[in-house]
Amino acid sequence: MKQNDILRRFIFEALGVRGEWVRLEHSWQAAKEHQQGNSCVQQQLGEALAAVVLMSATIKFSGSLILQAQGDGDLKTLVAQCTNDRNIRGLVRGNDNVKPGSLTELFGTGFMVLTIESETAEPYQGIVPLEGNNFAEALQTYFVQSEQLQTRLWLFANQTHAVGFLLQELPSQGTYKEDWARIEILANTVTEKELMELSCEEILYRLFNEDKVTIFEPETVSFACQCSAQKIEQTLSSMGRTELDTILAERGNIEVHCEFCGHHYTFDKVDIDRITVDEQTLH
Ligand SMILES: [Zn+2]
Fold this sequence. Notes:
The protein has two domains: 6-223, Hsp33 domain (3-Layer(bab) Sandwich), CATH 3.55.30.10; 229-282, HSP33 redox switch-like (CBS domain Like), CATH 3.90.1280.10. The chain starts with 5 loop residues before the first strand and ends with a helix. It is an alpha+beta fold. The strands form three sheets. Strands 1, 2, 8, 9, 10 and 11 form a six-stranded antiparallel β-sheet that branches. A six-stranded mixed β-sheet has the order 7-6-3-4-5-12. Strand 1 (6-12) and strand 2 form a beta hairpin. It is 36% helix and 30% strand. Bound molecules: zinc ion.
């Protein structure tokens, strides 16, 4: 069975605990292809992408789940996004001084926001303190404090793979403290090497072979950008004709570059006439 670019969900029904496992390979390599930055910068992006895939599967929604971290440190901006169809994309900006460290050492003073952009409901935003040794620590603190859900998260990334593992008590079902503590102790022995190399079934057998666990069908994770000429035209249109004319006069045409996928969009005067036609008729 395919063991990369898939998400697996599983559940310990008797214990009221659910879990997820993800390993990204081609989708991760495609997502970072258009991103600059040293291996440490890229590692942060990989861990964040594994995290948004895991989190996207803990909720029912139609749209995008976005993790955004921003600070005044050497690592300035990181965005990781996953849709309910498990399409991922990300961007990261950091200088060459970025070296391994805690979130504060990487980002300096800043903030992290989780956003759920839903097609059917108002956007949801949760603020996650940029604290802890890594995204896994920051996010598990967020789940425990803000969502009142016992959660453990493991995230790792290198040049070829990004992996994640999550355990969480089921929201609707009380989990016995003893059961959670036992599962947590067993899970704590999992290593980065195992998550990079073993299949989900092998991991579950190695950690929890005495517990009954139900594992669901794999879900494919892909790199896919949601940018489009239409969306950019909407943004341009909202800028107003005067500003667009100024750019056209300076540069001949308007170039827009998608930072997630590297796609270039070019708009000339004829395009701008078409985009702003509604505005013209209004005047
Ligand atoms: Zn794009």
